[in-house]
């Protein structure tokens, strides 16, 4: 059964955050809130966690996983980014955007798009998410908590606990979070491409 953690949305309890991060380091898969909607997350090198996310969401190998980063310096360790893209991404973070970029060698191969060798990265504007990745000290490997054959992501902690009680080790509830996934911008080609329109305003990339 999943452990249920009630976390203050503005002042996350350090002890609770530390407990969750310890479980992530021990191989746990967690459901946690972001500024767009809930996500599934595990440690970067957690092969079993990656496989479990694929199973829960029924994902194929072309799915772009997202590295949820604490800040821009951390993000830049995991993707290659030129000056023009740097300025565009920097201006939109933190926020409800995911950026697809060429990955560096720091990213495990099983996370890469098989042909493009890209990965998603984002810096969320959410106090609890920021507390988690700050305590973890590395990006949190994530995917939107959108179940197969459902159009809307799950947004309530208690419902996630009911639905995924035997699929995840922990559910973090900090009250209302977003109901839309991130806006996804692919910067791996010659021009930015809006792959998904979501919570972030896409007009700045059009």
TrEMBL record:
SUPFAM superfamilies: YrdC/RibB. InterPro entries: DHBP_synth_RibB-like_a/b_dom, Sua5-like_dom, SUA5_domain. It comes from the Bacteria. Residues 14-200 form the YrdC-like domain. Pfam families: Sua5_yciO_yrdC. PANTHER family: DHBP SYNTHASE RIBB-LIKE ALPHA/BETA DOMAIN-CONTAINING PROTEIN, THREONYLCARBAMOYL-AMP SYNTHASE. This is Threonylcarbamoyl-AMP synthase. It comes from Streptomyces rhizosphaericola.
């Amino acid at each position: 059964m999943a452990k249920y953690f009630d976390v203050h949305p503005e002042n996350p309890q350090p002890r609770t955050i530390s407990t969750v991060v310890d479980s992530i380091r021990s191989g746990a898969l967690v459901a946690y809130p972001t500024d767009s909607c809930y996500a599934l997350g595990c440690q970067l090198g957690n092969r079993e966690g990656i496989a479990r996310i694929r199973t829960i969401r029924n994902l194929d190998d072309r799915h772009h996983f997202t590295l949820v980063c604490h800040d821009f310096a951390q993000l830049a360790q995991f993707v290659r980014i030129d000056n023009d893209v740097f300025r565009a991404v920097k201006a939109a973070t933190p926020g409800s955007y995911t950026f697809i970029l060429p990955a560096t060698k720091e990213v495990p191969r099983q996370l890469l798009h098989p042909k493009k060798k890209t990965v998603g990265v984002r810096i969320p504007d959410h106090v609890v998410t920021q507390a988690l990745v700050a305590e973890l000290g590395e990006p949190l490997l994530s995917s939107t908590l959108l179940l197969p054959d459902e159009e809307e992501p799950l947004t309530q902690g208690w419902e996630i606990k009911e639905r995924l009680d035997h699929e995840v080790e922990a559910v973090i509830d900090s009250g209302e979070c977003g109901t839309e996934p991130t806006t996804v911008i692919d910067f791996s080609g010659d021009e930015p491409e809006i792959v998904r329109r979501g919570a972030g305003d896409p007009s700045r990339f059009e």
